[in-house]
Each structure stands twice: as structure tokens, then as C-alpha cells.
Amino acid sequence: MKNSTYLVIMAGGIGSRFWPLSTVETPKQFLDIVGTGKSLFQQTIDRFKGICPIQNIFVVTSARYSDLALSQCPGLLPENILKEPCMRNTAPCIAYAAWKIMKKNPEARIVVTPSDHMVTDTIEFQRVIRSGLRFITNKNRILTLGIRPSNPSTGYGYIQADAKPERNPEIFKVSAFREKPDLKTAVSYLEQGNYSWNSGLFLWSAATIREAFNRYLPEVAEIFSNASNIYYSNQEQDYINHYFPACPNISIDYSIMEKADNIYTMPCDFGWSDLGTWGSLFDELHKSKEQNVVIGDQVRLIDAEECIVHMPLHKKVVVQGLKNYIVAESSGTLLICNKNEEQRIREFSGYFNK
Amino acid sequence: MKNSTYLVIMAGGIGSRFWPLSTVETPKQFLDIVGTGKSLFQQTIDRFKGICPIQNIFVVTSARYSDLALSQCPGLLPENILKEPCMRNTAPCIAYAAWKIMKKNPEARIVVTPSDHMVTDTIEFQRVIRSGLRFITNKNRILTLGIRPSNPSTGYGYIQADAKPERNPEIFKVSAFREKPDLKTAVSYLEQGNYSWNSGLFLWSAATIREAFNRYLPEVAEIFSNASNIYYSNQEQDYINHYFPACPNISIDYSIMEKADNIYTMPCDFGWSDLGTWGSLFDELHKSKEQNVVIGDQVRLIDAEECIVHMPLHKKVVVQGLKNYIVAESSGTLLICNKNEEQRIREFSGYFNK
């Protein structure tokens, strides 16, 4: 039987908050940021093993990272790497992938996933994905996975679910998408209980999302619809290079999710982290007795607490007397920074970009 | 006219307190520890320009560092590099150098100098050396240079001078050598005014020091006296390898200085530092407005005070939020350590020597 499940991996981001690990040359998703021996991009692909075959995996990324993506996952079909000539947020590239996949398989069911997040419970993750796929199969439904919030974070958008579940009791109609809240609002979301974090994981059929683009973003739909004869041909990249920049710079959340009425959510709990900052990486990883996180096999900590030390594998390092610090090195660049100041890392990285 | 001034540079030490810069492979004296582009050994040689020609410079070092010394100063005569097969403190190697130099020139006047100290006022240094050389020429006198103490340091031995100066009013007979004192004693030394730090810089004629060895360390004198036929020959190294280990492991201070009665001292002030620790390097170098010392041209300090950051020249580094820290990298090994804990650095370096 033909496997009609397709995966679209969004891998175009920069992730400058993880400097000096992440750089414009090698952004976060292509780095082994948690020290497992695999990049977050490779871990994302692994997470879908058994759900769809590798020839059904599409990667949307910047033209400059397409070789990197292929080198990290040599089994990918080169024609399945969609090269954006410029950044236009999530809506245009999701449309591009949807039309291209539909050309190959009109029955396609698509999972869209970020490439730079972490999931620790892959078994639960796959259960959720399979359950979600059943929910959208042959239905005009858009499903977005929510993350059950562990704390009133002000760093994520929230999905507000209807009180009443669908027939699948894990799934709810979406009442509203909420921007990143202030702390007071976030606390009230958690008290109300029907809010979850917006993870950027979406499930839909190709036909459903195409229909949504036709209705809510017709100018984008037109660009990719007009291209249907050139997908998988020599002309594809030229066409994309020419027309993609004309797309509006707009997110899928803003352009479709917040407007359509067939949007559902499934609040999940599979050990998810967006690894948005050093602090969130620290929160996720195994800590020593002194509450330190160490990546690197020759790192010695003395009188150190609550630090995250991220070093090249065999680099010899002694850290004495630090509390609550980030110590990170990559590509010969070293950062030492109090964890409370991590929002300034983007500024620090700019010092060397002149 | 033949130049009868000879220089003996003691370059056999390890300097493990400057780890990770100094290592057994490349000890402190062969490193550009102050960021001038020259190692301390090279600076030591430069300091004697005009005082003696390069063919009069002898270097005493471990056999393992002889190539390093030659590579840092290609003009040195290879036969002038005295290779110790093992460490026997200062007395045996000073005897070796004295007998070997005397074989070449019985009129020799010798300056003995450490190779890992810093001198900032080279003009005053050369004036002192020339004045000292005049004082010992054709006289049976041993002159040791003292450093006028700037503070009651407990890290140095002290030289106690007689109250009454010699005919050269800068020079005094030595009353006693004093071990490293406790703080109270050091304060009293400074109050009394006739104490100076023992710098390890000595001046004497070859004949004088030979006479002192004959009297106070006859077993050492015998070893090097018996060798007079083989200096500068193919048999020299074999002889040394065989007999040098039989020498007692003893310092020149303890074996001769403290016993002889023809010892003089000249209290000096030529911007000397023994650079014994990171803290003393910090004290010596130029500080920014925030009292930071930085070596490396791509180091950015943010909210940092009283730190010493010593990095490979072009390494990109951001240090945020540290006060009173050492941040040092060399040969791919990184140290971050509170300056108050620098006495533990030797312990830290041991972590990686297994």
C-alpha cells in the first residue's frame, strides 16, 4: 500500500540566541546542541521513523543550507529539499510544500514540524502523530498540536481550546490563538486549564491546506498553483527564485490558523522543548548533583553550580567558582555569560559580524 | 677588545602555576605570556643587548627544551646550550656553566639570570648590570641583585643588607638571606628598610664562583673540574648525562650564598616582576577603565571587572558578568578561575595529566 503520509520539516531558521554554537553558517537545527551525536534536524527525522518513508520527507530551508541538510541526511531525495531564495516566514513555504507534495500524491496527509525542537518521549510523540493523522484523514480538518504548559511561560503563543472535546477525547476545537502573554495573563491561562503552548506542529491533508490557502491567502495560492507543471523539473528552482520573493512575509498562524474555522488542537505531553535559549536547554538536560549541565567529555567543574557548559567534545576545560553561568564554545568562539543575561546573546554575537 | 662578559640564562623551570598557558611541553619562559610577541626567554636575551655578544650567552635548560630555546633564538651557539639530564636545582647547573665558560675565557665575568621574569625598565636594568659588573671585576666578590620591595610580600625570600654602603653607594654587604617570611615579619622588614627581594640575579667572575664551589660544594666542583678536557667536545653530553645526576639537588642560595662572606647586594628598582602567578601578571599589565587586563585582540568584556583574560591572538571571546576572574586558554585548554583561588591551579592542571 502506498504510504500517503508526508513530512515537511521547516529548517530555514537562524537561532541566533544559541550563539556561539549557532551561527549564520551553521544554524541551531544543524547542530548537536544536546550532545547526543546527532543534530536537532537529524533527531527530527529520526522521530518520524516508521511514520513515513524517507522519500516522503520534504525539507524547506534556505538555499544556503540545502547541502548541509543533505550531508546530515544523505537518504533525502535532493528534489525534496525546497530551497527558499529568501525568508518569507512560514505561510509561503508551507504552501510551496503542499502544492509540490499534492502534485505527487493528491491523497497526501502532511505533518509540518519545526526542525530545532527537542522531544524526549518519542513513543508518546509517535502515538500522538498517528492519532492526529487518523483525525485529519479524509476530513477537512486542520490540527495543531499544543503542548500542555508546565509553567506560565511568557515566551510562547497559547492555543485556547473549547471546553468540549471531539469524538477523539484528546482533541478540541480551537477557540482562539493568543499572542505571547504577560505573566499575569499566562497564570490565568494555566488556571483556566484549556490553554496550551503553540508548538508549530501541524497536521492536515494537502487538499485541506490548499483549500485554506485558496480562501485566506489567494495570492500565495496562485503562485504555487501556477507552478504545477514545473514541480520536479529543471525549471522549478528558477520559477521559485523568481516568484517566491513576491510572496507576503507572513506566518501560517496569522494568515490561516487565526482565520479558519476548521482548526483543532490536541494538547500533548511528549517531553517537548523548543530549546529557544541556553536557559531552556539547561532546563531540559540532565543535571549533576551541583545542578550543572555539561556537554563535553573533558570538562571539570569546581565550586560551580547551576551552570551550563557546552564545549567541543574533547576540549580540556576547568571552570572554577561560577554560579548560574553559560560557558559555551563553538567554531573557536567562546562565550561566558550569566544565565540571567542570555537575552543579550544576540547583541554579543553582533560584535564579530562586522 | 675581547668581551669577557658572559650571560647564563636559567631556563629549566616548569611554571605550572601558569597553566593552561604553561605546560610541561612549553613552560612559562618560552611563552609570550605578556602578549608582546616575544617569549619571556626572548625578552631576557633582548634585555642584555649591548652588554654581551650572543656568542657569550649560555642557556641552562632541560634536554627536552634545548630545541625550543634554539628555535626561539636561532643566533645562540648550540654548544652554549647546557642540557641538564635531570633537575638538580640551581647550584649544579651554575657550576657547570661556570667551569665551561672558564674553559673558554679565564677572565670571564658572569651574569646569571632567570628566564621567566619581567623587567619593564631596561635602561635602568642595563645601568645596574654595568655598575654591578664593574663592582665584581678583578675582585673576589659575589653580587646578588635585590629588588626594592613595593609591598610586604610573603612570596619571596629577602636579602638583609648591612647598614653601611660600600664605596659604590648602591651596594651593601649582605648580612643574611631570609626565607619567605610571614606577613608580620615582612612588614617589619619593610619598616627596617634594609631588606630587598631575592631576584635570582647574580654577578661574579668565573674564578670567584669556582673558588666558592671548591670551598662550599667540593663534590660538585670536582665533577665539573674533572670534565675540563671534554667541554665543547663530543664527549661532553655523555659525561654530563652520567655525572650530573650524581650532583646534590641544592640551590645556589642555600649552598653558597648563605655561607660565603664575600656576598654583596644592590637593591634595585627596574620594574621587576617574577610573574609567579596569574595575579602577579594581572598586577603588572595595563588595565582598562574597568580594571581588566586583556591579551587577545578579539576579546569583548561586558560588565566585567578586575579580570585577566589571556586568549590566543585572534580567538573570538565574549565575557559577561565576571569580577576578579582568570579566563585563560592555551593549546586548546580553557581555564576559568576566581583570582582568589589561583593557588589551586597546579591542582587543576593535574586533572589532565593522567
Can you give a write-up of this model?
2 copies of one chain form a homodimer. Chain A has 354 residues and is of the alpha/beta class. Helices cover 29% and strands 26% of the residues of chain A. In chain A, a hairpin with a 6-residue loop joins strand 7 (158-165) and strand 8 (172-178). The longest helix of chain A is centred in the first third of the chain and has 15 residues, at 90-104. Chain A is globular. The model of chain A has no long low-confidence stretch (mean pLDDT 94). Chain A binds chain B through residues 20, 298, 300, 302-303, 311, 315-322, 325, 327, 329, 332-338, 341, 344, 348, 351-352, and chain B through 20, 298, 300, 302-303, 311, 315-322, 325, 327, 329, 332-338, 341, 344, 348, 351-352. Strand 17 (333-338) of chain A pairs parallel with strand 15 (316-320) of chain B, so a sheet runs across the interface.
Q: Which strands sit side by side, in order, in the main sheet of chain A?
A: 6-9-7-8-10
Biggest sheet of chain A: strands, sense, closure?
A: 5 strands, mixed, barrel
Overall SS class of chain A = alpha/beta
Number of continuous helical runs of chain A: 11
Order of helices and strands of chain A: EHEHEHEEHEEEHEHHHHEEHEEEEEEH
Quaternary status of these chains? homodimer
Which radius of gyration of chain A do the C-alpha atoms yield?
Answer: 21 Å
Question: What proportion of the residues of chain A is helical, as a percent range?
Answer: 25-40%
Which runs of chain A of at least 5 residues are low in confidence (pLDDT < 50)?
A: none
